[in-house]
Design brief:
The complex is a heterodimer of chains A (285) and B (150). Chain A has 11 helices and 14 strands. The relative contact order of chain A is 0.12. Chain B has a 3-stranded antiparallel sheet, covered by helices on one side. Classes of the chains: A alpha+beta (285), B mainly alpha (150). At the A-B interface, helix 2 and helix 5 of A face strand 2 of B.
Amino acid sequence: MTVLRPATLAAALAARSEHPGALLVAGGTDAMVAINSGRLRAEVTVDLTGVGELASWSRSGSTIRIGSGLTYTRLIAELGDLCPGLAMASRTVGSPQIRNRGTVGGNVATASPAGDALPPLVAAGAVIELASTDGVRRVPIGAFLVGPKRSLLAPNELITAIELPVARGPQQFSKVGPRNAMVIAVCSLAVDVDVASRRVAVAIGSAGPTTLRALEAEAVASAAIDWTTGALGDADLARFAALVAQAARPIDDVRGTAAYRRHALAVLARRSLGWSLEALRRAVA
Amino acid sequence: MVNGTARVADGVLESDSLLTMLRERLDLPGSKGACEQGECGSCSVYLDGVLVCSCLVLAAQADGHGVLTVEGLADGDRLDPVQQAFIDAGAVQCGFCTPGLVLAAHDLLGRHRDPSDLEIREALAGNLCRCTGYEKVLDAVRLALARRSR
C-alpha cells in the first residue's frame, strides 16, 4: 500500500485521476476498521486530511456549503443553529473520539443505509458536489445514494462538498439503538419542516436499501397542518406516522426485525413531527 | 512530534495505524489495542490537541503532527491531576481501559469548566471498561473537577 498525502485539492484530484479507485481516507473511522481487520487492502491510499479546502464550511445566502472533510464535532459546534437536524444527527454519531475525526463527506461516501447524517441531508434536499480533474458536477443526494454502500461516486472523483439550505423551520432527528452512544441505528428518522413553503419532508434511515423519503406521509402532513398556528390533529398525526412506517422497506437483521423497525419508525415519526410542531407553535405564539 | 519530542519510526507499514506505530515502533505501550474499530476508546490519544482513537488514524496521517499519549501526561514525576484523581478515587481495576479513560477525562476537563453528570457520561461514552468499574471513574472525574475549582 502506498499512501499519498496531497496538500491541495488540485493534488488530491490529480492523485485520484492517476490512481482511479484509490482508497480515500479522511477521518478513517470507517476505512481503518476495514484495514485493521484485513478486509480492505488498497494498493494506493489518498489521505485527504491535508487538504484544507475540504475542512471548512461557508454560507452563501440561504445555502450552506459543508466541505466534505468537516468533522462532526465542528459541525455540532458551528452549524447547530443553521442546520439543527444535521447537528442533532451528528451528535448521535459514535463517541467524542469518533466525532472528532469522522467527517460528513465520509458518511456520504460510505453510503451506508445506517449513516446517521444521511436522513437529515435527504430530508433537506442536499446536493452532493463531486469533483474530478474533468470538472465539477452536482447530484441530489437522493440520486447519489443508489443502494447499500453504493453511490454514484466515480472512480476518479472526490466528494468535495455537501450543499443544503439553511433550516426553514423546525427540524428533528431521532434514532433507535440499544444505548444512547456508540450505536449503529436500528432505525432513524429526520423531519424537516419548511414553514415558508408549507411543506414537511421526512427521511428514513436504516430501514431500506438506502435512505428513503416518505412522500405520501409528507403530502398528508403538509396538507393537514394549520400553518398559521402549527396545529395538527391527533388523527392526522397518526396517519402521518402510519404512512412513514409504510414507506420503509426494512429487513430482518442482527440489529432488529423488519416488524420492529416499522413499529419504531411510526413512533419516531409521530414524536418527531410532534416536537417540530410544538417548536413551530412556540415560534408563532 | 510525540509527547513533545520529534520521533522517527522505522519499519512502519503503510497500512499500520498510529496505535501500532506507537506501541510497536516507538516503545509507547500505554495506549492499548483492543477492538481496533473505534468502539472501546482504549487507544485514545491527542492528535494536534484533539482526542482521537489512534487505531483509526493511519500512521502516515500523523506524520508532521503532534501526538500526546498517556505517557506524556505527567510532568516528570508529577502526575497530571486527572491521573492522581483516578488513583485517589480507586478508579482502576484491571487497568487496561485506564489510559484511554484518563485521556478522555483530561479532554473533558480541558473543554468544560463545570460539566454535569450527563456531560461527563457523554464525554466518556466511547471508553469501555470490561470490569464495569464506571462509578469509580465518574467519582475520579468529579474529584478532579472539585480539586480544580478549589
